[in-house]
């Protein structure tokens, strides 16, 4: 499969800036080594000149201190340190710092994620919308981190060398944005490892990424910036896809082949719909920008967290949502109900279905094509624990697919 244009550009920029950062660091290290060697030679030559030059010798001894390791250096033209770097005079560092990796392991992971996830998302969203998503994610994430450390400096006083902010350089915000985008598209799929013995649901992949970076930050302080950028990238990406991304209501766009949207526009037989009530969620060329983002229940904030944490997050997020609605920041009619409410089911019964939802999310088979017989617990053990679970899951999948087909027919009409 051919790599899309924007994905290729991101990979080239990532490799180029990482290599340039590596070369400049070691060039600076080499210059410091040469300078330190010359000063040590001058110090040795001046030892026989008597006590009259003792003060100058002491100054030279201080200047010939321990040379920092190349890993401890940073390139001010490519990266920045909040509260210390002149970001206002070098605004490009807000972009370049997100395309630099510090070590080979992080670079390898970033290349894999960008190569596979970016290629998928760019094919669905298009190059223009995908590039806009990446740029917004990078700039807003770095500006947020910069403002956070500056506010922290104002509140707690001037930061010293002991608690100096870390150097901002990592593509974690991009990687987290791609993971959020994949979660939006195929939340019910699984990542299968070790011949099916380990299964990770994509729905919880962002949460697991944050936990993983948090554990790394406990092991070493140099990974703390990954933890910070993963949280900021998660919030920025979800906010953009939830409220601001063009192409309103993408929840059901996977019901129909997205390749239809790539057909020749001259041969398009579908007339654009300008009425908001007739807006659909497919990738047909429909001109409707009144509602932006994915307002479906499947992309709600609490769906990123496993049970029982999701119940707490849902309670808090609902309070915030009602506050935003009360002050008319949000329109409740812009948000779509869950798929279970499409056929006229009572919304009040949703609170009594948390247990079934939990079991379906964690232990049930995926309802999407190609993920059958996939569960967190191996199927043989699950069938042994609950007899008759196979028929129940089969009926649940059949009911879900019937609802999806009805939705697709409504979109076609």
TrEMBL record:
<feature type="transmembrane region" description="Helical">
    <location>
        <begin position="104"/>
        <end position="121"/>
    </location>
</feature>
<feature type="transmembrane region" description="Helical">
    <location>
        <begin position="202"/>
        <end position="219"/>
    </location>
</feature>
<dbReference type="InterPro" id="IPR035952">
    <property type="entry name" value="Rhomboid-like_sf"/>
</dbReference>
<feature type="transmembrane region" description="Helical">
    <location>
        <begin position="163"/>
        <end position="182"/>
    </location>
</feature>
<dbReference type="InterPro" id="IPR013861">
    <property type="entry name" value="TMEM115/Pdh1/Rbl19"/>
</dbReference>
<dbReference type="GO" id="GO:0016020">
    <property type="term" value="C:membrane"/>
</dbReference>
<dbReference type="GO" id="GO:0005794">
    <property type="term" value="C:Golgi apparatus"/>
</dbReference>
<dbReference type="Pfam" id="PF08551">
    <property type="entry name" value="DUF1751"/>
</dbReference>
<feature type="transmembrane region" description="Helical">
    <location>
        <begin position="7"/>
        <end position="27"/>
    </location>
</feature>
<keyword id="KW-0472">Membrane</keyword>
<feature type="transmembrane region" description="Helical">
    <location>
        <begin position="225"/>
        <end position="244"/>
    </location>
</feature>
<keyword id="KW-0812">Transmembrane</keyword>
<feature type="transmembrane region" description="Helical">
    <location>
        <begin position="133"/>
        <end position="151"/>
    </location>
</feature>
<protein>
    <recommendedName>
        <fullName>Rhomboid-like protein 19</fullName>
    </recommendedName>
</protein>
<keyword id="KW-1133">Transmembrane helix</keyword>
<dbReference type="GO" id="GO:0006890">
    <property type="term" value="P:retrograde vesicle-mediated transport, Golgi to endoplasmic reticulum"/>
</dbReference>
